[in-house]
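Task card 7
Instruction: Convert sequence to structure tokens.
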Amino acid sequence: MLMRTDPFRELDRMAQQLLGPGTSPRPSVMPMDAYREGDEYVVAFDLPGVSPDALDIDVERNMLTVKAERRPAAKPDDVQMELSERPVGAFSRQIVLADTLDTEHIHADYDAGVLTLRIPIAERAKPRKISVGVGSGHKEISG
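Output:
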């Protein structure tokens, strides 16, 4: 069997031991998908291992902020970690929302490590028909 060697693996391991988990000076970014589904926008964030009570979602004007914290699992004192690749600590993401979205009715679900936000499109942004008066009658124009 062939084994690949990484000359920096030992340095990374020592840095992790010295600095400890989650000591990054700034929050990490969480991966996300965003798409339109019918009359709403859906934004899904990957947050495996994050407890639902460690999620914080705020909207101020048109800025959506999602914060999460993945805490290290409690281990007995006699455990010596050999490899630790799963990040712990604070994660955050900010998204500027269009004025055409209804930020008053955002719905959030968290299931299987995925936070899903559903943001409805505001009524004022939906397509509508405007009738045009011609003389005594009305003619509809699609718009």
